[in-house]
DNA sequence: ATTGCTCCGATTGTTGACAATCATTCAGAG
DNA sequence: CTCTGAATGATTGTCAACAATCGGAGCAAT
């Protein structure tokens, strides 16, 4: 039985995906208003599904909606990013702890392999492409999965990581942090391999808190 | 100028509120299917707004939707509750830390007053009414506010607390924990008053982790 | 008896038209 | 000239009809 090559999706789900990408890549800029009629005709669908897609993006915190006034792309100013990184610190810290408690040896090996691949990529094409190609997300994504906590996974992958991608796309990123990041990643994996939840959480929180500090410093310097 | 007594809301927002209450109180039971046609006629609205309301509830994690098959009320089994309490531990721990760093003296005093009121209520009407009347939520709600972190507040108040209310409504709750809970609340406030973020986070995490252990024990015993 | 197929009813997904609301503009009074 | 406020255009909210899809009942063949 041949499986269908194109997975049939509902129009609003497809619209939701397109909108998500448009927002993250900056095709729809921060604070920009989302006109229902405009987007509907542009995507070749009706306003009904599009409205539902917007409701979905609201749930992901990518847009903010105000009744009778429409939806606007969320604005990631310094305060919002500070909030985001604190929440991320809490959630990924917990994810690392739970991953340390529950990841199988096989999964840990896969993680190590992932970091090896990342290291090679960095050596070959300069640190820049690491963040740019979202290799960094691979790592954090796998840790989230390792926690076996579905709610944690949904929160991180479905909401926080989208906002982070959005931020990363729009601010050019420091490539001098890649080596430090990779080293910290290895330390975290080591703690997970040892089943040391306390240490894994501590290291992940430091890793994220440090990333925020350097982003913040860069933002304050560049403007 | 007299402010309007009835705040005009959109139909889908009103439906969203009604549905939320119906789910939390158990009027719509866990796992039950939400029929669009049925609910729409019952609420006296059309299917359009109702569908948007369901999308909103999906964002709050109160229902789970599968394309072409409808939406069902989420099932809070043991595994889901375990996940929920771990996430809560991480987020409220962070909220307590930030509250300790940022709450004003005045706000802390208000918190102390709140706990005094709670204590009186417990003495007067037995411990039972404390959890039942959602006095416990008052406390956690104020701490979230104190964090000054809007994303944290949205996550806790808009999503996690709804699920917790749902759980609390349906499982009769231990009243022998009220005294211990109150004592722990006081310790947390003390840490916040001292501006000791480390301790505030630690105590809150213990508080929540302890609550989960006793709930889990009760569930395993009762079935 | 069980497996597979077809048809049918019920439910969800989608559409375009209609109603309500908001923001802007422009006229007129002070 | 400024401020108020009423008309107007554009945008969002709502509705009811239509199309697409899923699940199950019933029947036939092995």
UniProtKB/TrEMBL annotation, chains A, B:
Annotated Pfam families: FCD, GntR
Superkingdom in the source lineage: Bacteria
Keyword flag DNA-binding: yes
PROSITE patterns assigned to the protein according to its UniProt record, in alphabetical order: HTH_GNTR
InterPro entries membership: GntR_C, TF_FadR/GntR_C, Tscrpt_reg_HTH_GntR, WH-like_DNA-bd_sf, WH_DNA-bd_sf
Molecular functions per Gene Ontology: DNA binding; DNA-binding transcription factor activity
Keyword Cell membrane: no
Signal peptide: none
Keywords on record: DNA-binding, Transcription, Transcription regulation
UniProt-recorded name of the protein: Propionate catabolism operon transcriptional regulator of GntR family [predicted]
């Amino acid at each position: 039985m041949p499986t269908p090559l194109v997975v049939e999706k509902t129009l609003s789900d497809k619209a939701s995906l397109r909108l998500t990408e448009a927002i993250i890549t900056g095709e729809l800029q921060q604070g920009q208003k989302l006109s229902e009629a405009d987007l509907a005709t542009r995507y070749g669908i009706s306003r009904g599904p599009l409205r539902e897609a917007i409701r979905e993006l609201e749930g992901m915190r990518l847009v903010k909606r105000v009744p009778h006034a429409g939806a606007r792309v969320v604005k990631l100013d310094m305060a919002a990013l500070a909030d985001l990184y604190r929440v991320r610190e809490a959630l990924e810290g917990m994810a690392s702890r739970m991953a340390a408690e529950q990841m199988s040896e096989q999964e840990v090996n896969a993680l190590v392999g992932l970091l090896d691949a990342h290291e090679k990529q960095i050596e070959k094409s300069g640190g820049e492409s690491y963040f740019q190609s979202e290799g960094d997300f691979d790592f954090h994504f796998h840790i989230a999965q390792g926690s076996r906590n579905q709610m944690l996974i949904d929160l991180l992958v479905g909401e926080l990581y989208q906002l982070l991608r959005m931020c990363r796309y729009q601010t050019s990123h420091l490539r001098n942090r890649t080596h430090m990041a990779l080293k910290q990643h290895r330390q975290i994996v080591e703690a997970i391999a040892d089943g040391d939840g306390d240490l894994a959480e501590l290291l992940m929180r430091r890793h994220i808190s440090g990333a925020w500090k350097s982003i913040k410093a860069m933002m304050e310097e560049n403007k």
